[in-house]
Structures are given as structure tokens and as C-alpha cells.
Amino acid sequence: MAITEKNCTVVITTFFSDEKLNFCLSNIPEAFPIIVIDNGCDHDKKNFYEKKYKNLRYIIPKENLGVPRSYSYAFSLVKTRYMFNTQPDVTVKKNCIENLLNSYDHYPNAAILSPIIFHEGKYLVDGDYKTLKLKNKKLINPYINLDNSLNWNPPAGDLSVDAVTGTAMLIDTYKLKDIKDWDTKIFNYYEDMDLCLRLRLHGYEIIKIKNAEVDHQAFSSHDLKFEDQLNFSRNWHYSWSSFYFFKKHIGKIYAYRFGLKLFFISFFKFIFYFCILKKKYKTHLAKSWGVLYSMLNFNPSFRPKI
């Protein structure tokens, strides 16, 4: 494949990412057009980045779209065959995107090619991908935990997997269109697992490419002064999305068992921590609130107040 700017668009979602976004962009080759979706609606940053990076289009939506809606919005603007989705706290290593693009010649049935993801220099299996167990085209277990994940070595070659996280993925837009885009009912979390599962059930492959690498500093894509608000939001939406994902792909019985257990455990922990310890109660409040909203079939409407 001839590598030109016509092949791939880089897409990054950001939310008060401060200098992380600048560092991330500095590692992306100028040959590739870039779309940034700024859910923090920072107009000063728009002017700064569009002046600094001539290959960049900085989009400020009317509201905080969350992750899958941001990617879907970007997808509607992408004019290339491939889109490379990543995050502000990711460092794209040299030739990463180019090597991913070249690998499509070897894997024409692949819908997603993922780089090998290191977490602050360490290869962490659990953080790199989650395994989806499929039986008769039904999801029976959303993921498995891998013991001693820090002791694993990176794969010796390219590796076909069931799913990869949304940290960094090169997507074939033709195949994405084939499954009708991202699930935009989700605000954040599990949108990557949902995407991978639907692509796999459609017969497409997902492959990690050995000679493409990124480094990820997890949960650091935002300004630290917003940490408390965003930590609450993360727990709220993770709980909402967990129930929604299980209900969608496993079934109502499994989902409500999971949801009720999570709600009561989190709610009682909230009461205990609030009344006795007077600290760390917000996390449990967020979890119980988020999963309750999901069980009641309410939209994921919570937004951090920043």
C-alpha cells in the first residue's frame, strides 16, 4: 500500500487535556490529516492548534459528546479509507501508523489493526486487550482476567485477538460502515468492546501488529485539577455502560443480576464510607447511581461540572 495522506485520518477526542494533546500531536507524522474533537469546548485551543498544525481540523461540538459519539461524528467527516483513533495520553511511536497501514495488505479481512500498547513502558496484557468468549454467536463471558499480567512478554509476532481497547486502533471505515458505526447510545466505556464484538460476529478479524507501538499513560489525558470530577464521571459511566453492554449482548437475566448486585454493594458501601469513614464515598455513590440509571433504561446523562 502506498502511504500518503489519502490513506488515513487520525482522530483524537479530548476533554481538558492540557499539554497532553500537544505532546500527542507532535508524534503524529504531518502526512496524515488529523481531526480533533474537543468536548471541553476550548476555543482558544482551537486557534492555537490549527495554527500550529496545518494538517489539523479542530472541531468544537455544541455539547460534550462522549467517546463513541465523538468518533461517530469524526467518522462522518473522514474522507480516507482508514481512521486511526487514539487519545491525548498516548505517545505514537515512530512508523506506528505507517506499519499498521502496510499490514492491511497481509490481512485484508481485518477490520481493526492495533499497535502493541505499552503502559508507561510496561507491556500489560489486561490493559492491552480483553478476550471476548463467543459461543453460537452469543457472548457468554465479557472478559477474562489474566493472572500475573505484568510478567507477560509482548507477542513474538502479529496476533489475532477477539478485542482491543480503544487506546489506539486503525479502523477500516468500509467495514465500520458495514456494521452501522459505533453504538452512540453509550457515552463512555465498553464502546470499544461493543465495536470489536460486532465486527467479530460479522466475520471480520482484529489483529495486533508487532512492529507498531504506542505508549499509554492511563487516566492522564485530562488536567489533574479536574481529577475528582472526572473520577466520579468515570465510575458513573463505567457502571452504566457495563449493565447496558451485558443486557445488549448477554441478556436481561444476566444483566439484572449483575446490576442489582453492583447497585446494592455500591450503595451500602456509600452509606458506610459516608457515615463512618467520611471519605472515598463518592466512588461508590457514582457506581450505584450509574448502574441504577442503566437498569431503569435512562440515558447516560451525567456530565462532570467543569
What does this structure look like?
The protein is α/β, with parallel strands linked by helices and 306 residues long. It folds into two domains: 8-216, Spore Coat Polysaccharide Biosynthesis Protein SpsA, Chain A, CATH 3.90.550; 224-295. Helices cover 40% and strands 21% of the residues. The chain has ten helices and twelve strands. It has helices spanning 19-26, 43-52, 66-77, 96-103, 125-128, 173-178, 191-201, 227-249, 252-277, 281-295; strands at 8-14, 34-38, 56-59, 82-86, 90-92, 110-119, 122-123, 133-135, 138-141, 159-161, 168-172, 205-216. Strands 1, 2, 3, 4, 5, 6, 7, 10, 11 and 12 form a ten-stranded mixed beta sheet that branches. Strands 8-9 form a two-stranded antiparallel ribbon. Helix 2 (43-52) links the parallel strand 2 and strand 3 (56-59). The longest helix has 26 residues, at 252-277. The model is unreliable at 139-150 (pLDDT under 50).
